[in-house]
Structures are given as C-alpha cells and as structure tokens.
Amino acid sequence: MSPKFGLGYGSPEDQSFIAKHGARCHCEAVQYEVRADPVDAKICHCTVCQVLHGAPMQWAAIFHKRDVRFIAGVEHLRFYNSALDRPERLLPCKVSCARCGTLIADEGRLMWLAFPTLFDFGAPPQVPEAFRPTCHIFYGMRVMDVDDGRPKWSGHKDRSTLL
Q: Which stretches in the chain have pLDDT values below 70?
C-alpha cells in the first residue's frame, strides 16, 4: 500500500491489529479488515447516495480509519468526489473497485463508511447488532417510506430536525 493511501489506516505489518470482520468487493480483488465494531450505522436517503448506488437508500457502518486495514487490491481502488464531480481521491469521496465496479465505502477525513453487505457474516448471514442501523438520515429526500421504528432525521443525525 502506498504511504499516501495508508495515512490514518491500520498497517498490514501491525502485529497488534487483530481483525474482527472482513469485507471484499464482488470480484474479491479489493479486501480489507476492521478490528472494531462500527461506531454507528445509518441508512442514508440523500439523492447522491440514491443515484450512485442505484437504490432508494444506502446502508453504512462507520469506522475510524485507524481500525481499517487493506489486505489486498489497493491498486484497484477508484475514487470519486461527488461534490466536485472529479474522479480523484479528494476527501470526502466515494471508493469503488476499478475491476468489478463494486461500491466499497465512503472515505471521510477520519472515518470509513463501509457498506455492510460486503462483509462476511456467515451463511446464512447473521448481521451483528453493531452493524444494524440506528437511524435514517436525509429522510426528507426519501423515495419510499420505511416503517421500521428508527429515528428519521432531515439531515445528519443529531444535527438536523427529527422527522
């Protein structure tokens, strides 16, 4: 991994990094591990997520970058900054696999917003409680209602109106 990309992430050489969960893209070229449970998990309904994911919403589990390390495929990562409409690693940005096109995560300055569907939770999948969404964000932009009893925020959690 290039030192520039590795800034803030766990190192493959770090013997104290003990993987708790693993994730991969569809073609398995890009693989990474996390050593902690997510600090939160949310469902985003913003129009950018809808368009980029081709879905009515996006589910993300949020990790500190220091708890993430890549074990394969860094050379296959592709970046896109949606705010500037530039295919560059300008944070925050979207991260995907250049080989198969799988959307892998949203990379923030300090955080990694992983997509839980890429994690191996066994068969049949048993999603750990820490990965379950705590709320919906940008719910005012939703294209469909979700009646799940979780709080629905007009924007970011705790920084907007609770709907």
A: 1-7
C-alpha distance across the termini of the chain, in Å: 43
Domain ranges of the chain: 18-141
Q: 109: how many CB neighbours lie within 10 A of its CB? A: 8
**What fold is seen in the domain 18-141?**
glutathione-dependent formaldehyde- activating enzyme (gfa) (3.90.1590)
The H or E element that residue 51 is part of is helix 47-53
Token pair of 104 as six digits: 């892998």
SS (H, E, C) 67-85: HEEEEECHHHEEEEECCCC
Element (H, E) at 74: none
Specify the pTM: 0.90
Do 70 and 30 contact (CB within 8 A), yes or no? yes
- For residue 77, give every residue at least 6 positions away whose Cβ sits within 8 Å of its Cβ, in sequence order, or none: 5, 30, 95, 96, 97, 98, 104
